[in-house]
Amino acid sequence: MSDACEWVGYCIDEGIGDLQRAAGTLGALDELSMAHDADELRRMVRDSEVGALGVIVGMTSDGVSDVNLAAAIARDGRARVVALVRRGASGSLRSRARNAGIDLVLDPMGEECREAEPPSALPSSPLFADPRSLLGPLESRAPVIALCSGRGGAGKTTIVAGMACAAARWGMRVAAVDLDLSCGNLHSCFGVRPVVDPTSLVGEWGSEGRALFSASPGVSVTAPCGRPEMSELVMPQAASLVARAAEGADLVLVDTSTTFTDAVAQAAQMCDRLVLVSDGAPGSMAAIARMGGLAVRLGVARTRISRLENRANPHAKTDFSLLRAEVGLEAARVFRVFDGGAEVPELIAAGQVASLMGLTGPFSRSVSAVTAQLLLELGRLPDDKEARRLSEEQTTKRWPFSLGLRREAR
Predict the structure, then answer these.
(1) What stretch or stretches form a coiled coil here (predicted)?
(2) pTM: predicted TM-score of the whole model, two decimal places
(3) Residue 196 in contact with residue 36, Cβ under 8 Å?
(4) 131-407: which CATH number, 3.30.565.10, 3.40.50.300, 3.40.50.150, 3.10.310.40?
(5) Which of 61, 128, 167, 290 is the most exposed place for a label (fewest CB within 10 A)?
């Protein structure tokens, strides 16, 4: 394999022997160039032709772990193969590294180091992996619902927060995962400050569950990265984070960024329902058309995709002609969340989503109805009188206009 590409590597002085031993088993030692630091290694790969370089990462310092560095290079998608050298590599490390797109984990003192052989073709991009394999059968875990729009301002975050509160009122344990890792603000809807920076957990395999912290009774959330530029290091663990959340909750809701990052793609591939959110603004339908097409190309079954029209006019009927043919979702179920007036953004900005969902009005009731109906589809509707009643309502029907909000009696 050594004649197929050149090799570059990096490690600190203490690890040079292990790295050279691993490189020798790959037939790469004579063609190996060493970078002076982690940044230079990544620049070397980025400046090369796609597939021209193989990469070997050994012991590091520079404030970035060997696993993080290898995962970041794998995510860049330009290296032909990425190998991580680690003494005493555990099965858990190998599994997690594979999920992060790292092709080889080599123990310089182990048998696999002598037997390892890099792939003969370009490694698959993590974007097109199958993160759904991380989830067990739906019967043994929480359902996962992800909201996506392809543009900012469509209202995904507000709806995710409202759905979480609605489900929690029915006695469910809800995990709300914010995959806008750079600039997400899901936690702010609940009026709480970030408690855990997900960047601090990268490389601590099996620690993804610690990213969740309590935001409201029955609701746990994740926060974005404290430093937006570090989000690239967290993205490879997005699927593992969602899978771990599904093990300890009754419902997982995933908020996403405005674009289809690797993290969003992983969530779309593994979720049980992908809800495409539009709001009638210019470009909104074109955005979900692109997102819907991409989701289908990523292997998301059309039966798992729904559409949600946010800020809908409660007096207007759903315009089904807006479901463009190129999305391929003409038969997808359409939900509507109704415009609740100025009170909705005001209460959200004040971190009072729980109070908002405790009021009766077009927004809160329609969000609750959508939540109940999605849970009914997934066979997880809780045994709650309100949830059962709302699961039978039609969110496409005309909504009686209300000038004000009032407390809902349960």
Answers:
(1) none
(2) 0.67
(3) no
(4) 3.40.50.300
(5) 128
Q: Could you tell me where in the chain the CATH 3.40.50.300 domains are found? A: 131-407
- Rounded CA-CA distance 394/100 in Å is 42
For Cα atoms 27, 68, 227, give the angle at the middle one, nearest 5 degrees: 150
Per CATH, the number for 6-124 is: 3.40.50.2300
Q: What does the alpha-carbon distance between residue 293 and residue 33 come to, in Å, rounded to a whole number? A: 42
Q: Compute the 3-state secondary structure of the chain and give helix, strand, coil in percent, each to the nearest 5.
A: 45, 15, 40
**Integer Cα distance of 157 and 92 in angstroms:** 33
CA distance 71 to 396: 45
Structure tokens at 96: 């997690």
Residue type, 23: A
**DSSP string of 162-219, one letter each residue:** HHHHHHHHTT--EEEEE--TTT--GGGGGT------GGGGTT-TT-GGGG-EEEETTE
Closest alpha carbon to 243 in 205, 288, 284, 291: 205
SS3 category, 342: coil
258 residue type, one letter: T
The boundaries of every CATH 3.40.50.2300 domain in the chain are 6-124
Residue 388 amino acid letter: R
Question: Mean pLDDT by 10-residue block, N- to C-terminus, for the chain (410 residues)?
Answer: 69 87 82 88 90 89 78 88 87 80 85 45 44 83 94 93 98 97 95 92 72 96 92 86 92 93 90 92 82 85 91 68 48 86 94 94 95 96 95 57 36
**229-242 burial by CB neighbour count: b if 16+ within 10 A, else e?**
ebbbbbbbbbbbbb
Question: What local confidence, expressed as pLDDT, does residue 397 receive?
Answer: 41
